[in-house]
Amino acid sequence: MSLAIQTAGLAKTYGGRPPVEALKPLTLEVAAGETFGLLGPNGAGKTTLVKLLLGLAHPTAGSATLFGAPIEDADARRPVGFLPEGHRFPPFLTGRDALDLFARMSGLEGAGRDARARELLALVRLEAAADRRVGTYSKGMLQRLGIAQALMHRPRLVFLDEPTDGVDPVGRREIRILIEQLRDDGVTLFLNSHLLSEVERVCTRVAILKDGRMVRDGTVDDLTRQGRAWTVTSTPLPAETRIALEDAVGETTERPDGLERYVVTMPDRVALNAALDALRSSGVEVEAVEPVRQSLEDLFVEVVTHDES
Ligand code: ATP
User: How far apart are the CA of 303 and the centre of ligand 1, in A?
Assistant: First the structure.
């Protein structure tokens, strides 16, 4: 597995009285091609981690690499793009001018520069507004332009800090589509966002930081599963089958179409399948079996407010 980001005991304490342990020793791996979401309440250490990885702050302990290159090495950041939170473009520039400026800063010259700006304007769907001043852009358009600048040099890893901040639902959807497009192109994405429903939709893996410590790390799928419970939809369950399955079957909801929904709790998938066999051999027709999940938001609130880990 090729790793885009790897940290080993990476930590940051800001000096001062008293000193602030913003990031406690963190060991984290983000695989190349992954869409990774970093979550945590205000002050959890998210920005500090991003700053360390981008060389904008220096660790007090530990180490980290980007695609195998140590973060102390400026070249480690060549394949990296960054959309900072609350970025600003000079309002008097047009979208095209702004991208041209970033193209120059990326070292692009001549026809290649114009072509790349055109390509990016098309990608973020700003072609029609390309010659309007940035000062007239909506928040969603500004965020899309910000993503375009982050992609200028075709980075393999892109940090997006609150990419949908202040953007309306239509704009958020457009940004989500863009993120999905980048993911499909194999770009590794590191997303920092408080909009958990967005994170849940686009990220394959998330980590939750709390008080500078990583308290959860896993796939969205694994983290949001509610133990070993499945919602089953089937034709009505005969009383004797329900009795045979004892406490494994929860309360039943009858649906207008005559089918029933109930939660089956089993220790594992093998036991679930045995229960389904028992249902089917008693004449029950199963229409759907879905794992019971909590939302990422529920998990986040639980971890941040109750979890002492
Ligand atoms: P938010 O969601 O509000 O952006 P965050 O998770 O990004 O928060 P950080 O900005 O990394 O959190 O801050 C972590 C802790 O470090 C906080 O207690 C913050 O006050 C402190 N901190 C951040 N930058 C500095 C600094 N330059 N000097 C001293 N303390 C700092």
Answer: 19
**Pairing relation of β-strands 61-66 and 35-39?**
unpaired
Record the pTM. Answer: 0.84
- Ligand 1 atom nearest to CA at 57: 27
d(CA 166, CA 138) in angstroms, rounded, equals 10
Give the tens place of pLDDT for each residue, 36-76.
Answer: 999 999 999 999 999 999 999 999 999 999 999 999 999 99
d(CA 43, ligand 1 centre) in Å:
5
Q: How far is the CA of 75 from the centre of ligand 1 (A)?
A: 26
Helix or strand or coil: residue 236? coil
DSSP 292: E
Note the pLDDT tens digit of each residue in 111-154.
Answer: 888 899 999 999 999 999 999 999 999 988 999 999 999 999 99
Q: Please name each of the domains of the chain with its CATH number.
A: 3-222 (3.40.50.300), 228-293 (3.30.70)
